[in-house]
Amino acid sequence: MSAMAKPVFAEDGSLLDGGIDLNMEQGMAEHLKDVILLTAIVQVLSTISSYFWYLWLLAPARALYLLWVNFLGPWFSAESPSAPEEVNEKKQRRQERRQMKRF
Question: Residues with Cβ < 8 Å from 56, sequence gap 6 or more?
């Protein structure tokens, strides 16, 4: 995680990448911390019973949940763009007459 927070400088000394703020909420660092915490909890609890390894299924479940909430759900539930309204024949004739008068 410390490699994510290190800034990257160019040869002339200018800043190329400032690194990631590890305390930022809703970022990659937060998800990485969650995985590390889950790993520690699973390892400690697995000393009691080997069935606690099934808690590791929470990681892909959360990833699928975040994928659905942030990308797939809004994409599937988005309304389709409405078709352009068809112009009535009378309106179209009026517009053509107005254009002909201008020329």
Answer: 38, 42
